[in-house]
Design goal:
- It is built from 7 helices and 4 strands.
- The protein is mainly alpha-helical and about 170 residues long.
- The strands form 2 sheets. The protein has a two-stranded parallel ribbon. Strands 3-4 form a two-stranded parallel sheet.
- About 15% of the residues are buried.
């Protein structure tokens, strides 16, 4: 995001920050993350909207790279209701960046991250649950956006710099 001028928002980071704030939403967020489930869409979209508004107000940001979102049909539905509301559109999805990586590679990367992340969802049991959730809830979303011609797929089980170069080109061309 720094090199290409897009503001980066991580749905997961926003959820973890809200959880750690001790807000009224913390319990719901905690329970879903610990179970490897998707947090209710209204919560995630609300946090994204708030973060986008803050970045627009502070720095005039108009291009956002949102990672880890959308993950379910509910995410898409609520996003469209709140952010793509006809004449009051606040944000539209230009494309979906899909980093395609085999589960065994992702598992080893997540277990490596677990050594320093302190995240409650970086355990083998939760990782497996997250893969089941991803296949069942997120892949249909990727497929739907692919039918709209909005998916940009990058093979991600390569060296980070190779993946970055391909992603940077896709982002710069959009």
């Amino acid at each position: 995001s720094e090199r290409l001028g897009w503001a980066h928002l991580s749905a997961g980071d926003l959820l973890r920050a809200e959880r750690n704030s001790g807000s009224a939403l913390a319990g719901t967020i905690n329970a879903n993350i610990a179970a490897g489930k998707i947090v209710p869409a209204e919560i995630t979209v609300g946090l994204l909207e708030k973060a986008m508004e803050k970045l627009r107000a502070e720095g005039g940001c108009t291009r956002f790279l949102i990672d880890g979102f959308p993950r379910s049909e509910g995410n898409v539905t609520v996003w469209k209701e709140i952010m793509e509301d006809g004449d009051n559109t606040r944000a539209d999805v230009r494309f979906v960046l899909f980093l395609d990586c085999p589960e065994d590679t992702m598992t080893s990367r997540l277990l490596e991250r677990a050594k320093t992340s302190g995240r409650v969802d970086d355990t083998i049991d939760v990782i497996r649950k997250r893969f089941v959730t991803f296949r069942g809830e997120s892949m249909p979303i990727v497929d739907a956006y692919e039918k709209e011609g909005k998916v940009r797929k990058v093979i991600a089980d390569r060296h980070v710099e190779e993946v970055y170069k391909e992603v940077a080109k896709l982002v710069a061309d959009s």
